[in-house]
Amino acid sequence: xxxxxxxxxxxxxxxxxxxxxxxxxxxxxxxxxxxxxxxxxxxxxxxxxxxxxxxxxxxxxxxxxxxxxxxxxxxxxxxxxxxxxxxxxxxxxxxxxxxxxxxxxxxxxxxxxxxxxxxxxxxxxxxxxxxxxxxxxxxxxxxxxxxxxxxxxxxxxxxxxxxxxxxxxxxxxxxxxxxxxxxxxxxxxxxxxxxxxxxxxxxxxxxxxxxxxxxxxxxxxxxxxxxxxxxxxxxxxxxxxxxxxxxxxxxxxxxxxxxxxxxxxxxxxxxxxxxxxxxxxxxxxxxxxxxxxxxxxxxxxxxxxxxxxxxxxxxxxxxxxxxxxxxxxx
Length: 330
Prior knowledge:
The chain has 330 residues and is of the alpha/beta class. The chain is built from twelve helices and eleven strands. The chain has a domain of 224 residues: Alpha-Beta Barrel (TIM Barrel), CATH 3.20.20. Strand 2, helix 2 and strand 3 form a beta-alpha-beta unit. The two termini are 13 Å apart.
């Protein structure tokens, strides 16, 4: 009985190890081919402001943001607009170090602090704006005012994209609500900037096939998730990958995170981070997530610490497999 159990557990462990290894090799091979790195920021704060809770991840100090921009450029990054990204996805040559800068939500600090730094360096960016100023996502910081959005978009350095109406996930919504969140938000933003807004970032990285189909019907050109990786021709145009940049990341942390092996790890973590919302539902998970970030454990939810957790977990798994091999041999 013991031998049979040992062999069964060893076989299961072997299958899991083989499946995970095959997945990792596939994505590692993919990330070693040319692609466009799309960076995702949220908010920027003054250097004298101390952020707490989830803002440690979603808000970056102005000096650190500047450090990111300058270090990326020194490292050979070539910054593209979404129009240039679309050309690359259509088969145009991908420049070495191709990089796109994006912001989600449309918080006021993007206009006040980030846009001037981008303008000084002549770097393009896109801000995906939650259309309703009354959305919960603006509890921390108000939305960019309509007149400022219009000016930013007209100047061309920071262009406007859509991010839903209320910043709820686009999953399991009734047809009318989904249409309002997607098509309604794009129409509202188009009226603000006086041009068609056709690119979107999916709120909370939560969506289903109905949302993707509606984006297609609404004429969305490019849609972005926040699953890590580089964008390439052949990718699903409405589920393009992006790399979430955390406020705690130094410039060296950011460069390290763009390496193929770590993009694969980030991709796996991104999938796992969606699991609680998928299992519990957005309405239950989001309040729990907010409380979790306020606990001491919240400080450990950064990329640097999660990376260490993944490495520890991999070592523990390999130790378990070795132990099962030894057990089955006795």
